Amino acid sequence: MDNELELDLDKIESDAEKQLEVKNRYKQLSEKVIHEKNEKEELTLAKEALEKEKADTTKERDFYKDFSTHSSKYPQATEYQDQIWEKVKGGYSTEDAILSTLAKEGKLQTSAPVVDVAGGSASNQIRDVGEKKLSEMTTDEKLAKLMELEKIGDISI
């Protein structure tokens, strides 16, 4: 009977040790799962940061490439390159950013530059833009001049 009691105590102690081992194992496995989950999240965040940095670098490279071609059209754009870059980062195309920045600063030239073409084959006649003398005017021109003077009030009939 003493033997039986001792066996039961040994069995109870070994069962308690097994339960403790199982609990420790569960705890280790759950910690491992949490640790792996955290590592996976960190890797995902690092990957997203790398992709964003790559996209930003590509966008910046494309901006400088486009900016150099457009700066020949708009030479004053080089003064506002940083402001233009901020607008491009915000979603503008390079040319739109240049136009809006130059317009905002009042540096945008809307008229085409005057081109002086010398040495063409067409004959250039210089016309007298001044007033004709009374003796050189026709009757119709004299009548039109009188009507014009009457309208502005220089003479009255």
What do the pLDDT scores average to? 81
Which parts are unreliable, with pLDDT below 50 for 5 consecutive residues or more? none
Strand content: under 5%
The percentage helix is 55-70%
Total number of helices? 4
What characterizes the major β-sheet?
A: none
How far apart lie the N and C ends? 154 Å
Computed structural class: mainly alpha
Shape: rod-shaped
Give the H and E element order. Answer: HHHH
Q: Can you walk through the features of this model?
A:
This protein has 157 residues and is mainly α. It has a domain at 2-108. Helices cover 66% and strands 0% of the residues. The chain contains 4 helices and no strands. Helix 2 packs across helix 3. It is rod-shaped, with a radius of gyration of 45 Å. The N and C termini lie far apart (154 Å).
In short:
With 157 residues, the protein is mostly helical. The chain is 66% helix and 0% strand. The protein starts with a helix and ends in a 5-residue tail after the last helix.
Brief descriptors of the model:
4 helices; 0% strand; mainly alpha; 157 residues
Topology:
Elements: H1 2-70, H2 81-89, H3 94-105, H4 139-152
